[in-house]
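Anyone opening a protein record will find just a pair of labelled lines. With that in mind, the following record should read easily:
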Amino acid sequence: MRVTMIGTGYVGLVSGACFSDFGHTVTCIDKDAAKIETLRHGGIPIYEPGLDALVATNVAAGRLHFETDAREAIRTSDVVFIAVGTPSRRGDGHADLTYVYAAAEEIASMIEGFTVIVTKSTVPVGTGDEVDAVIRRANPNADIAVVSNPEFLREGAAIDDFKRPDRVVIGIEDDRARAPMQELYRPLYLNETPILFTQRRTSELIKYAANAFLATKITFINEMADLCEAVGADVQQVAKGIGLDKRIGGKFLNAGPGYGGSCFPKDTLALSKTATDAGTPLEIVQSVVQVNADRKKAMAQRITTAMGGFATGKTVAILGLAFKPNTDDMRDAPSLDIVPALIEAGARVKVYDPEAMNEARKLLNGPVWCEDTYDAIEGADALVILTEWDQFRALDLDRVKSLMATPMIVDLRNVYDSATMEAHGFGYSCIGRTGLPLPELIERKSA
């Protein structure tokens, strides 16, 4: 099949590369000429493990192309995907659909013959109806079927998620779209992947409901972590104990500083706004949004408390800036709350992330940008593990201690444990478990 992907952001580029690897001929379109030129020369504008090799293989095979002019690609395509951004709209939190509708209007003037138009972007319920209307207003003779096909890609594991998904959701109103969509995903049928055909509005809501549920699960275990600290329980054991229940499952039960990223923050907010407008407010989701925002803001105070209650004149080393490992995505990352708050409190903040430094420089003012892990740690009064990159899971703790001004580790991802920290002579603050306050450690060692 011939496929056009409008937008070469995270979703568009990964989806386009994977569809081409399925054997389809894919043209990825973007108005950013510099980005297209980069892609043509083998550069990848985002960090996603394995994506560079996948793109290179399919470009070499002649199945994957990058263009700024969409006309010829759309004219000859069987399926056209809209994979543009839907950020939170300033002022009210609704999804900003400006780019989606602009893409639909542009597509309308280029269609020839029956074409399936697919919204891959995350969009509120009813957006497909409006996309259909926009195209028909712009081109009354357009022969189209508008489909909803939401993505469920985890950053850092997106290629595997696309090729071995838990499910594929396809929302249609025109039965003519069924056969092209089945052919598009034919390799997954061979793998017996569940493919759910449903109504378009239902498909749009499935995406939001899934993200809201996962965000709720994260927020729930974070609140349980606070309770564990108060009563002397271990949140990791609590998570394991409830996660073994098959009705609950163990995923998304890792306590931490709060969720971030490209999906959960904006999608929970957009769903909440949509529900309120529909007269059915989602009080649980509204609480999740607020609790998560408050949690990220509270993490700076947790770090300050671990240093004895004040940050002025202290040096804090932050390891990890991206919202999760294996990505350079800084959108709504906890670091965007924590780093500025520490600097405002008078701390000197040194930062390092294996992949997100360039993106972080665009969003953070004032930290010391470090060359590597141990460069960040040198001279620190507190070492904060903020993103659980693999390279932070096996630090040379003796070297770490020798470099630090004060041996205090604040582990916001529960990578280590108190016994290990005590054996190496550290104070240790963690999430939802018993830590090892630095003052007690110093007293025991001096006794």
In short: DSSP finds 19 helices and 14 strands in the chain. Residues 440-447 have pLDDT under 50 and may be disordered.
